[in-house]
């Protein structure tokens, strides 16, 4: 539609059309953008600019910060702190997300266990409980800034949208592997009994450190290895993805004989405020993400610990759901993972 308004149909090549739209975009892009205080500007060795918007995942102000930043800088790429396992939240409306976040049921548990394994799946559900607690307290669904980023990026000519976070199954598996048996029990206990009230003022006060990540930091502060896998390693991954997105933008050529030309790109990154210091710290260092993408095979002691934790978790789950209804208990007992635990217990008993 824009092309039909600017030039007669058939009289403009694709390259010319690209140049005209790019020129319009450049004119709209502010040379000295007026940016929110939550934005950190980084520059690559090739001259590309990356504007990292530090957000609180439950904040209306963060949504406005993201919109303003994208409108001011007219980016070539927008990168958000999401992975392919959480991308569905971009296209769901606020009402549906609010309902989904509050409903942590058996079906979601089974899906998490099937996708990530028993221990990682249970950990994921416990972390979802933290998010659901905040959702219930505030009446606000998480990830609003990511949805705003998705909407605004679609309005910018030639703007790509990238998922910049490490796949969540990798994060949970590495987190579980980093904990001892008692650390797993202690962390699970803290997550299960989270109930402190949270106000919207509390969220806005946490603009200097994302609320969800701050709550997590308070709970995992005594577990350095857990902090490393959930926060520090993801800082590295996010930094790597932002730098990949900030490669120079190659301009189209009218013919193969025409020399290649490229210009520095502009990127907007939308991440939780707690990740910004780590991204700044890692910005100029050599990064090897292969090291943080692998999951080491479990040792014999960890297998024993994992089995005990599985049995304990399922025992607690059965007791908890028994209070809801016997039908739920029968469903849990029918789960293949539960049957496996019971079978192993039966095998161990004669040896004693």
TrEMBL record:
Give a GO molecular function annotation for the protein: mitochondrion-mitochondrion outer membrane tether activity
The protein in question is named: TraB domain containing
Biological process terms from the Gene Ontology for this record are: mitochondrial fusion
Can you supply one Gene Ontology CC term for this chain's record?
Answer: mitochondrial outer membrane
Q: Which domain of life is it from?
A: Eukaryota
Signal peptide location in the record? none
Q: Give the organism the record lists.
A: Monodelphis domestica (Gray short-tailed opossum)
């Amino acid at each position: 539609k824009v092309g039909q308004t600017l030039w007669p149909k058939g009289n403009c090549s694709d390259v010319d059309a690209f140049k005209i739209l790019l020129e319009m975009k450049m004119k709209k892009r502010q040379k000295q953008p007026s940016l929110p205080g939550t934005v950190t500007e980084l520059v690559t060795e090739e001259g590309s600019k990356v504007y990292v918007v530090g957000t609180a995942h439950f904040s209306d102000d963060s949504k406005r910060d993201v919109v303003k930043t994208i409108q001011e800088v007219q980016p070539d790429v927008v990168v958000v702190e999401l992975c392919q396992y959480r991308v569905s939240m971009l296209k769901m409306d606020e009402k549906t997300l609010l309902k989904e976040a509050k409903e942590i049921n058996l079906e979601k548990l089974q899906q998490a266990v099937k996708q990530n394994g028993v221990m990682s799946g249970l950990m994921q559900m416990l972390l979802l409980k933290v998010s659901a607690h905040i959702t219930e307290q505030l009446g606000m669904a998480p990830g609003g800034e990511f949805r705003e980023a998705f909407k605004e990026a679609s309005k910018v000519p030639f703007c790509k949208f990238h998922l910049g976070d490490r796949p969540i199954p990798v994060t949970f598996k590495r987190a579980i592997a980093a904990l001892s048996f008692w650390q797993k029990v202690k962390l699970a206990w803290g997550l299960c009994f989270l109930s402190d009230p949270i106000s919207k003022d509390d969220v806005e006060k946490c603009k200097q450190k994302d609320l969800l990540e701050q709550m997590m930091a308070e709970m995992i502060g005594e577990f350095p290895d857990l902090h490393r896998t959930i926060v520090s390693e993801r800082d590295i991954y996010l930094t790597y993805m932002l730098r990949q997105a900030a490669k120079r933008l190659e301009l189209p050529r009218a013919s193969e004989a025409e020399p290649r030309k490229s210009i520095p790109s502009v990127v907007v990154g939308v991440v939780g405020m707690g990740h910004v210091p780590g991204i700044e710290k890692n910005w100029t260092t050599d990064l090897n993400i292969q090291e943080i993408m692998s999951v080491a095979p479990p040792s014999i002691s960890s297998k024993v610990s994992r089995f005990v934790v599985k049995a304990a978790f399922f025992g607690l789950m059965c007791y908890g759901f028994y209070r809801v209804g016997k039908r739920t208990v029968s469903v849990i007992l029918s789960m293949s993972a539960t049957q496996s635990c019971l079978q192993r217990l039966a095998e161990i008993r004669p040896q004693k």
